[in-house]
Each structure stands twice: as C-alpha cells, then as structure tokens.
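User: I'm designing a mutation panel for NAD-dependent epimerase and want to avoid disrupting the core. Could you give me a predicted structure to guide residue selection? Please restate the sequence first so the numbering is unambiguous.

Assistant: Good idea. Sequence first, for numbering, then the predicted structure tokens:
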Amino acid sequence: MPKYILIIGACGQIGTELTLALREKYGSNHVIASDIREGNDELMLSGPFEILDATNYDALEEVIAYYDISEIYLMAAMLSATAEKFPMRAWNLNMNTLFNVLNLAKEKKINKVFWPSSIAVFGPNTPKEDTPQNTIMEPSTVYGISKQSGERWCEYYFNKFNVDVRSIRYPGLISWKTMPGGGTTDYAVEIYHKALAEGSYTCFLGEDTKLPMMFMDDAIRATLQIMEAPETNIKERSAYNLAAMSFTPKELAESITAVMPEFKINYEPDSRQQIANSWPNSIDDSIAQRDWNWKAEFDLSKTTATMLENLKNKV
Ligand code: AKB
C-alpha cells in the first residue's frame, strides 16, 4: 500500500528540506506539505500544499482524512530565543500541536509520528562534554522545558497506547536553502550570508561559546533513517542524542577565513548568550549509532565549503 505523509511546519528551515527529500523518496503526490503560510518557490512548486494550523485538531483531522495520511512529521515549533519573549505562545504551539498529533495516533488515525526534540532539553546541571543519552536534564529555557515535556509525553504515549513516535535531539542546524528563525544557534547560518554579502559579521554569542552543530544534509538523512528503522530497533521513545561536530564562533570564523581571508568577525553577546551557556558543548550519540546505525558525514570544513559554494550560486 502506498503511504501518504503529512509535514506540519513544511516551510521552516528543516521542513523545507525534509519535504523535498521525502518527495524525492516517495513521490511528490505522496507527501503533503502544510504550514500557516506559504513557503519558497522550490517547495511550493514541488507538490501538494495545505494552509494548516496544527493547533486546531479538527482542521488537522480533516486534512488527514482527505489525503488518507498515515505518517506525520511535526516540524512546527517556536525556537529558543523567540520562546523566551513569548513563553505562553511557545508552550501552546509546541505542546498543543504535539498533543493533537499524538492523540490522532492514539485513535489509530495515523500509524507513525516524527517529532523533533533538541539539545535544549539539557540544562546548566547537565555534564557539558559528551553529554550522554541519559543524564541530568533540568532545562532552564522556555523552549527546553517544552521539548523536555514533549519527550516525556512521547514516551508515555508509546508505553500506554503503543503510539509509534520517534524523535531526535537536533543540535544547531546549518543550511543554505531556508533561513532558521528565532533560535540561539542561528548565528552559524547568518555568518555565511553576512560573509558573502558584507565581508564581516557581528556575532550575538561570545567567541568561545562551544555548541553542538550539524549540517542539514546529515539532519535530513538521520530523520529518514530513524523513521525507516525497524520498530524493534527504536529503544529510546523519548528522543535520541545526535551529533556531528561542535565548534565556537571563533572556530567557525576561522573556517571561513581559510576560504575568504578578508572576512572579519566581532562579538556583541546579547540575551541569547545565557541560553547558549545552559546547553552542552558536545553530545555523545553512541546510542543512535548502536540502534539505527547513525553516522554523521559533514565536519566543519566540509560544511563551510558547501555553505559558501551554494550561497554564492544563490545570489
Ligand atoms: C535553537 O537554537 O533554538 C534551535 C535548537 C538548538 O533547537 N536551533
């Protein structure tokens, strides 16, 4: 039986590339993109699209029935920096969309769910280096609290109602097709745009702030891989740690100056510094490697080369 997939939040940074990758794999008409606004031309012209507010259970149920959807990727969320400004809106968006999707799965209206978690589930009391899969969490940000709660609910729906929900704790994601919005790790995308447009960048994090990061191609590959893995391989029903590289703004700037020697960076840390300080420096993803053969392919220099090459061609 061919399956029909719904992406919620398809126009965002991950949603755009995930939709394109799933369409490539399953055929355009089998992957329905949805969001509260339209996305870029590449996404909009590549297959079916619905305007959908996934906080509205009835509207979501209607789309699922209409397209005979069996799998949902729930990518809509308010990220860390914006969530600090609008805590209740962040909580409502991040939690209500998750409950709507989990309840549809509990009612057997869909079979499988992907929901993204984040390194933001960790907090200031978490071991900073090689943060293990299972450790102290205690997130101190609005976004982190919503992701930590979401993980607990995913595990609960699996244990109680046998809902096949799978999740990854994404690090900061670097991509060139769609800009991120409202995150603390966004500097690692903005820097490439500014390097090409202006030859310099003012970073909102301090030069030694080390954070876990990943290039988007790796993140998409991991997402497809965890969703394809046999159900019995998925031992973690909260979310899996996932890692590729860790670097500071200074190290990222050095990787750009290696290609563009005239590039300049300066630092003006703002309120996002406090969020970054509460997150790990690096992540141990050995459990994801063990359970579904995860392995990253992009390091910092390959990421910088790919970003600059593609952004140059885009302008
Ligand atoms: C953010 O910075 O808020 C996100 C994340 C790490 O989940 N990119």
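For picking mutation sites, this is relevant: The pocket of 2-amino-3-ketobutyric acid is lined by residues 79-80, 118-120, 143, 170, 172, 183-185 (CB under 6 Å). The mean pLDDT is 97.
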